[in-house]
Design brief:
heterodimer, A: mainly alpha, B: 212 residues, mainly alpha, 60% helix, elongated
Amino acid sequence: MRFRLRKKPPGMGCNELVELVTDYLEGKLPPSDVERFEAHLEECEACATYLEQILQSLAVVGALSEETLPQGAADALLAEFRDWKRARD
Amino acid sequence: MATALPQEETALLMALRDGDEAVFMAVVEAWGPAMLRLARAHVSSQAIAEEVVQEAWVGILRALDGFEGRSSLKTWAFRIVANVAKTRAVKESRSVPFSSATVDGEEGPAVDPDRFQTAGDRYPGHWQTPPEPWPEQRLEAAETRNAALAAIAGLPARQREIITLRDIAGLSAEEACNALAVTETNQRVLLHRARSTVRNALESHFDAAEDR
């Protein structure tokens, strides 16, 4: 099933919106563009999906930080920390 | 048993300077995976990345007493990891030095232009092949995570660094700029490219799975 545009969304082209997503999320879009961006989103289901997918991608990438360090690496770092402590004493 | 990472910078710094092992391990646990990924952006193997992180921590500890807090401790620590990784990469001569990598795939559209309508179509610039919603329940699947990892691994080095610092390590834009010595605008361009590429990769991943 393919999404169909019923009418032309206002403000900006979808191809423009996808290039402004990062500026929008970073709060770096000028206020006039924010208005056009949001007006477009309200009318364009496909672009709303696109933005949602960027946010979902961010969540997937963010979850990579929850991985744990290999035990060997953590142990090696603790050993370095102890060496450092000893050297300062 | 895990000690929480002191949220307050001064408390964290003092505990580390006091040699508090539990706090040190909490820091290693919190920052370590992202540090490894940052290192891995430059060097050819996981083992070397682990060496880089270890060498960086030796440097961080040595310099800790002299740390003046001009940037956050986290920014400073990640900058040291980035520098050690770059030095190691030059030795490995696998990648060009960071500063000379100017263009580095910064150009190119976020989405394949073929997916938009063109001049002869009804609504030029609007979707021809719009994105389909993703299966929510599969976002946390290991394969989805692996697809994201593979996409990040395939990025040009600077994009990989930025997305690692911003979206994995959770640094702010300003902190990432400080850690990598790039301008704010450049940082944002790189982040945009990187995030767009990851989205495209996940889309292909879900499409492929659907066709199976």
